[in-house]
Specification:
Layout lengths: L1 H19 L15 H13 L5 H13 L5 H10 L3 H18 L3 H13 L3 H21 L3 H25 L5 E8 L5 E9 L16
Antiparallel strand pairs: 1-2
Length: 213
């Protein structure tokens, strides 16, 4: 009887610990590696990115994302060899979509963020900068070399600042703008749109007119 009672207590304690434990983090969707059939499927989808039918191209892009990061090498190879601007654009989108879930290289993420910001896709840029900032900060926390730690911390701060700017731009930012009209040297008129200032809701000021990404 005592043995049975002890077992009940042990099981009960284990159940309580399981209930208190934080939920396991969800693993990002995707395929880590592809077998031969998977590689053939990826090759077919890459080919379909250049199909005549719009729906076929769109579906191929979505299905290719689902095969990432396993199809990364094939996507990069196709990106290098393709001459079709739309196919190249879709391949780049596949790589970037996958990167937010599967890439842990802050330098690559910062590169993607800059490309998105330069193309004025600010919402996407903010997501890349956010992840890059966190990864830089995590690396800085583990770094023992003082100079390397300082460099990583500076990169984390820079990425976080750019994320804030991209977020504001993606939402309009409440920017106050003024049109300044001036004449060119050849007498031609020109209009410059200049951002005066914008609040980031935390008491700070962000220069939205900067092109430094």
């Amino acid at each position: 009887m005592r043995t049975f009672f002890s077992i009940v207590l042990v099981l009960g304690a284990a159940a309580l610990r399981a209930a208190d434990a934080p939920p396991a983090a969800e693993k990002p969707a995707g395929v880590a590696t592809l077998d031969e059939d998977g590689k053939k499927k990826a090759a077919g989808l890459i080919k379909d990115l250049g199909a005549d039918a719009f729906d076929t191209r769109n579906n191929a892009e979505k299905e290719l994302v689902a095969l990432m990061p396993g199809a990364t090498a094939q996507v990069k190879d196709a990106l290098t060899t393709s001459k079709d601007p739309e196919v190249k654009s879709r391949l780049e989108k596949v790589l970037k979509t996958s990167a937010l879930d599967h890439v842990d290289d802050p330098e690559l993420l910062a590169k993607y963020a800059k490309e998105e910001a330069t193309a004025k896709r600010f919402e996407s840029a903010a997501k890349f900068y956010e992840k890059a900032a966190k990864l830089y900060a995590a690396k800085a926390a583990k770094e023992e070399n003082a100079d390397a730690k300082k460099d990583l911390s500076a990169k984390a701060e820079l990425a976080a600042g750019r994320q804030k700017r991209a977020n504001l731009l993606s939402k309009g930012g409440g920017a106050k703008r003024v049109q300044i009209a001036g004449g060119g040297g050849d007498g031609a008129g020109m209009v410059v749109i200049s951002t005066i200032e914008v609040s980031d809701n935390s008491g700070g000021k962000v220069d939205l007119n900067s092109e430094d990404w």
